[in-house]
Automatic annotation (TrEMBL):
This is MSTO1 protein. One of its GO terms (biological process) is mitochondrion organization. The gene is Msto1_0. InterPro entries: DML1/Misato. GO terms for cellular component: mitochondrion. PANTHER family: MITOCHONDRIAL DISTRIBUTION REGULATOR MISATO (PTHR13391), PROTEIN MISATO HOMOLOG 1 (PTHR13391:SF0).
Length: 221
């Protein structure tokens, strides 16, 4: 994962955010293009990293893996439906939602197994194969045996908020009051240098949409 994060970062960036959809919200009987077409304004996966999620989807680079979804035969009613493979469908969707971003995608046919001892915390709207139903079944459904899953790592502007908050918290720390800093070999100059590097890293994730956030505060010392 460390090497993958390095591959996704450039222009001084070093951090990536994790996203996932467990399970991937695919209706039973619907094709992958049908599912993705329903999420043109918002992606069908959620942010796992401790950042504030933004309404506008943007990223610099990403790696996305989808498993458990196969390409069905369908009529070409949209550009996504006209793609010849599941990989092409996912790749075209990523280029549409994240124009200009470097995107790699991988598709695995095998779903994620959820048999015992996997916890059965799923909605009753899921079939045994992890696909969504239009309405709850009239009978007690069996345990979910497998689910389609999507996971992604993104070098994304959402990380600006996380790094900005970390900078503000660290600026409030007066290392002179903490003997443990010095006993661990941390010098005042080293701390300030690391803080400045964090500020620089934070600025690498600015895109011009962060005007509502305050600028980094001055050193508390």
């Amino acid at each position: 994962m460390m090497h993958l994060a390095e591959t996704l970062n450039f222009s001084g960036r070093k951090v990536v955010a994790a996203w996932a959809s467990v399970p991937f919200p695919a209706l039973r009987g619907c094709s992958l293009p049908d599912t993705l077409c329903a999420y043109q304004q918002d992606v069908p996966w959620k942010l796992l990293s401790s950042c504030r999620e933004r309404k506008v989807s943007r990223c610099f680079a990403q790696s996305v893996v989808l498993r458990g979804i196969c390409k069905d035969r369908m009529q070409p009613t949209s550009p996504l439906h006209a793609c010849e493979s599941t990989e092409q469908i996912l790749q075209r969707y990523l280029h549409t939602v994240f124009p200009g971003a470097f995107s790699t995608s991988h598709v695995l046919e095998q779903p994620c197994n959820t048999l015992h001892p996997y916890p059965q915390f799923f909605s009753p709207l899921l079939t045994r194969q992890g696909f969504l139903l239009d309405k709850p079944p009239s009978y007690s459904s069996a345990a979910v045996e497998s689910i389609p899953v999507l996971a992604a790592l993104q070098s994304s502007p959402v990380l600006h908020t996380l790094l900005h908050s970390l900078c503000k918290d660290l600026q409030k720390v007066n290392v002179r009051r903490w003997a443990s800093f010095f006993s661990a070999g941390v010098e005042q100059d080293d701390f300030q240098e690391a803080l400045q590097e964090l500020r620089t890293l934070c600025q690498c994730y600015e895109t011009g949409f962060e005007a509502d956030e305050s600028e980094d505060e001055a050193d508390s010392d």
